[in-house]
Design goal:
The protein has 964 residues and is mostly beta strands. The protein has a single domain, classed as Maltoporin, Chain A (Beta Barrel), CATH 2.40.170. The chain has twelve helices and 45 strands. It has a 26-stranded mixed β-sheet that branches. A five-stranded mixed β-sheet has the order 3-6-7-4-5. Strand 21 and strand 22 form a beta hairpin. It is globular.
């Protein structure tokens, strides 16, 4: 198979127009700025792919064709050009395209359910509506679902070194691939043939001296399909990225205190009482002797620091005067973001692949591939608190006046004065909290394709993939051990440095869990040219597949013995039987009609038929007009039908409730009061619903591809998608939230778990800790937008070439409603949907632009990435979609508008000779700073989904490619 990029280059140099320039229609000119040119600069010394057949199969079609311009827009990313842009991983490549939006998962988000994993969300429909394939075949999902609900393939466990190209179908594709393809498909295509010895060595570091990166690849191949009739290669790769800590970056990434710029101080302990690694206590009543969880929640005197030497080093003493029922007292403020926060976790990735292809005879070719890949992520966090709500509420935990043996408790300063127990607030600073996620994926695939009979073509493929995720979590507190330690006095709260390793180990044993997922599949396709039409042969393709899918995600806290360890689970398996067809009819030389459909049957009992029709009209050779209409579906995940999850987001009390806790109102804005009014984590406890139905979608696209002159090409495509029966957890949670604070009845089937009372205002309304509700087919989503791209390629002289490309996605609407009774709200340009996007929001415009100069052996490229600004408000979280109507994060209008972000990467390379090449990448050349986004809970004051480069800052990578 000839390289797609070589076809483009030759076509451009010949001055070919649209009919000859096949890859225009494949969406190449709708590709990111780095995705298209033949002359790669910082690319691995690429092995060649030697299949000489001129036709290819484009993602979304069953047919091999020389004209790859299908009605659907497809973005093609080649390995050579990704490397030239400084992109070294499949994850970074796929997530860089402008169509990736709301709900995308960045590797840096290590505080979620899939720490260190990565996934794409085309059209902002979240990761469970984008299907990821390898060579057209499914692979095992990441064993944990995003937010405990949304299944996805971890892009960090796909081999990088042998990727030939990545095709991104930006259109509904359930008619071709079934469930999960509502938003589109990412098809990662591996190299078929590699000869010789080739590889890459690379090192990198940030300008601040951290975030070190080491990468190496080695591939050995032998045999030519054309002459030897076979090819076999093995490939290995390794990459390690060091952790980056918030303390090594400046304001505002290293603190939650934004009071200096007009925001709030959210550092723990900034108001009394607060919870830090310096324990504070206040006298309280223990209602049941021997039960340290039986405090009554009230305090009878001001809070005071328990340690004899006051606040720990680096912490600030905070004193609050008594006001009304608020007794105030003294505590410590701690910058936990600086002490413990990570901008990037440590990650190590490595893998091995063996691939063989055999030309059995002129009509038959077979292949087999086996790969093992491992991604290890290590992340650290703020220490655990003694006052937890999950799974057992320890908010009213106390230090008793007397220990179990009757002696005075040395940890309780009130034991010898008033004889009262001590309410306590404390982070276990002497017990480090961290986690290790070790994801393994082993995958095998084999297939055969060829021709038989009177013009029949066939292809049969089989794959089996197994993923197992080993999770080790340290620093979580065992409840039984904690109760024993408090009652016996073995843990020293006054001076935690005196605690022995044995005491700490008993209090915090490591929690280990293994979750697994499986994907086994066999599929077959037969195609044939039936007869000739004026525009060419009428093609018919039919196929079928059977696949087995399974997930086993056990509850890591089944006995509810570990404080603050989120208990989520999913388990299930099913068989899916599918049959499908496609008809391609070139009715005229200028008009092609394509129709396809697929019927899927799930062993759970539900079935669905998904149709699609597309057309391409080429009135003149310089212009092609294209469009599609399709229906699709997404089957409920195992987590949604047989699992439970508690998800957390940031929240503050409504202003009316804050007033009850001492807040003052100024111009309609609440501020001040007790620490109860600070931002906190609210939980949404969602239960499985085995009666869920598949989500449904209707989508259409319309656009054109133009090449008015040989050096200029551009595309414009409009898309429109509507989803119904969208599965959401607790669709009426917002109503339940409002009803609770209004004192009215909750929706049927919903309950509220209250927080402990505010000791400063014990008679005030309590906060909501959890909203408890089931999954339901209740929500709706409508989104539309425009994709556009432009390419200029010009020879300035005989030896100097200039290439400029741009790509952008502009979202016109992103309308979402949580239930049938609610109206649609337009979330575009806001930090919503807050829950499904992990607070990343939906920027209206994303784009990139690359300019390249090639002169002989030298090349210089610059690629700019743009994300538009947005309002840091969310209808589903902060009460509105504009600054005027929303109860915004922080106070008043502070930080309501998040600025746009522009990041520029540069790459320079020089080809020493045919066997050796050097390159230098400078990432974030201008050291652009991520805009302030205090409302994002995935990171400290910035949005890691779109602006991670702005938190890392300028970084450098240098490497060498070799081939022998």
């Amino acid at each position: 198979m000839k390289s797609i990029i070589d076809v483009v280059r030759r076509s451009l140099l010949r001055g070919s127009s649209l009919p000859a320039l096949a890859l225009v229609g494949a969406g190449l000119f709708a590709a990111p700025a780095f995705a298209q040119d033949a002359a790669a600069q910082a690319a691995p010394a690429a092995p060649t792919e030697a299949d000489t057949t001129p036709d290819v199969v484009v993602t979304g079609s069953l047919f091999r064709r020389t004209d790859t311009e299908t009605p659907s827009p497809v973005t093609v990313l080649t390995s050579e050009n990704l490397a030239r842009a400084g992109i070294t991983t499949v994850s970074d490549a796929v997530r860089s395209i402008s169509a990736d939006n709301s709900g995308s998962i960045p590797t840096s988000f290590s505080n979620g359910f899939g720490a260190g994993s990565s996934a794409i969300a085309l059209r902002g429909l979240t990761v469970n509506s984008t299907l990821t394939l390898i060579d057209g075949l499914r692979t095992a999902n990441y064993p944990l679902a995003d937010d405990g609900q949304r299944g996805f393939v971890d892009l960090n466990t796909i081999p990088d070194a042998i990727v030939d190209r990545i095709e991104v179908l930006k259109d509904g594709a359930s008619a071709s691939y079934g469930a999960d393809a509502i938003a589109g498909v990412v098809n990662i295509i591996m190299k078929k043939e590699i000869t010789g010895v080739s590889g890459t060595l690379e090192n990198g570091v940030t300008q601040r001296g951290d975030g070190g990166e080491r990468r190496g690849t080695l591939t050995i191949g032998h045999g030519h399909l054309n002459t030897d009739g076979y090819n076999f290669y093995i490939s290995g790769e390794y990459q390690h990225d060091d952790a980056i800590y918030n303390r090594n970056r400046g304001f505002p990434f290293n603190t939650a205190d934004l009071s200096g710029v007009g925001g709030l101080n959210q550092n723990p302990g900034s108001s009394v009482p607060g919870t830090t690694t310096s324990a504070i206590v206040a006298p309280t009543n223990q209602q049941v002797l021997g039960n340290v969880l039986s405090g009554d929640g009230t305090t009878s005197a001001p809070w005071q620091i328990l340690g004899k030497n006051g606040c720990a080093a680096g912490q600030k003493t905070v004193t609050a005067a008594a006001q009304g029922t608020n007794l105030g007292g003294t505590g410590c403020e701690q910058n936990t973001a600086s002490d413990y926060g990570q901008i990037q976790p440590s990650q190590t990735r490595w893998g091995l692949t063996a691939h063989g292809t055999v030309q059995i005879n002129p009509d038959t070719q077979a292949y087999a591939m086996v790969s093992y890949y491992q991604s290890n992520v290590k992340a650290s966090y703020t220490p655990n608190t003694i006052r937890s709500t999950n799974p057992i509420n320890t908010q009213n935990i106390v230090l008793p006046a007397h220990l179990a043996d009757g002696s005075i408790n040395p940890n309780d300063p009130f034991a010898t004065t008033t004889g009262q127990a001590a309410a306590i607030r404390y982070l276990f600073g002497d017990i480090q909290r961290n986690s290790e996620y070790d994801n393994h994926v082993i995958r095998g695939a084999a297939g055969v394709d060829g021709r038989f009979g009177d013009g029949f073509n066939y292809k049969v493929d089989a794959t089996a993939a197994h993923s197992w995720l080993d999770i080790t979590q340290n620093g979580y507190i065992n409840l039984n051990a904690l109760e024993t330690a408090i009652n016996t006095g073995t843990y020293n709260f006054v001076d935690p440095t005196q605690n022995s390793a044995a005491v700490r180990a008993a209090l915090s044993p490591a929690v280990r869990t293994r979750a697994t997922s499986d994907e086994d599949m066999i599929q077959g396709v037969v195609t044939k040219d039936l007869f000739q039409l004026p525009g060419g042969a009428l093609q018919l393709g039919v196929g079928g597949s059977v696949r087995y899918e399974a997930v086993n995600d056990p509850n890591s806290n089944a006995d509810e013995s570990t404080l603050s360890l989120n208990a989520f689970t999913a388990k299930g398996h099913h068989w899916v039987e599918s049959s499908y067809f496609e008809i391609n009819a070139p009715i005229l030389s200028v008009l092609e009609i394509d129709g396809s459909g697929r019927f899927d049957h799930y062993s759970e009992g539900y079935s669905h038929f998904s149709p699609k029709v597309g057309a391409k009209f080429t009135p003149i050779k310089e212009l092609a007009i294209r469009g599609t209409f399709s229906k699709g579906f997404r089957a409920p995940s195992f987590a949604e039908t047989n699992g439970t999850v508690i998800g957390y987001t940031s929240a503050t009390l409504p202003c009316s409730a804050q007033v009850q806790h001492g807040a003052a109102v100024n111009s309609g804005v609440c501020s001040g009061g007790s620490s109860y009014n600070q931002n906190y984590s609210i939980g949404y406890n969602t239960a499985a619903n085995p009666n869920l139905k598949p989500e449904l979608s209707t989508s259409f696209t319309a656009g054109f591809v133009a090449q008015p002159v040989k050096w200029l090409s551009f595309t414009v495509d409009y898309y429109n998608i509507k989803k119904t029966r969208v599965i959401v957890g607790g669709p009426l949670s917002g109503q339940a939230y409002a009803a609770y604070y209004a004192g009215t009845a909750l929706p049927a089937g919903y309950t509220i778990t209250q927080d402990a009372i505010d000791p400063a205002y014990p008679n005030a309304i309590r906060r909501i800790l959890y909203v408890n509700a089931p999954y339901a087919n209740a929500a709706g989503l409508k989104t539309s937008g425009i994709d556009a791209s432009l390419q200029i390629q010009a020879h300035l002289t005989d030896t100097v070439k200039f290439i400029s490309r741009a790509e952008g996605t502009y979202i016109l609407h992103y309308d979402f409603k949580t239930d049938d009774a609610s109206p649609y709200e337009d979330f575009v340009g806001t930090q919503a949907p807050y829950i499904t996007s992990s607070g990343a929001g939906t920027p209206q415009f994303r784009g990139n632009w690359q300019n390249t100069i090639e002169a002989g052996a030298y090349s210089l490229s610059a690629t700019a990435y743009y994300t538009s600004g947005y309002a840091a408000v969310a209808y589903d979280q902060f009460g509105g979609t504009d600054c005027a109507s929303s109860a915004t994060y922080g106070d008043g209008d502070f930080n309501c508008h998040v600025r746009r972000f522009i990041d520029v990467d540069m790459n320079a390379s020089v080809k020493i000779n045919d066997k050796f090449q050097l390159y230098l990448n400078v990432m974030n050349v201008f050291d652009a700073k991520a805009p302030l986004n205090a409302g994002n809970y995935a990171a400290t004051n910035y949005n890691p989904t779109y602006t991670q480069a702005g938190a890392i800052g300028r970084a450098f990578r240098a490497g060498a490619n070799f081939k022998f």
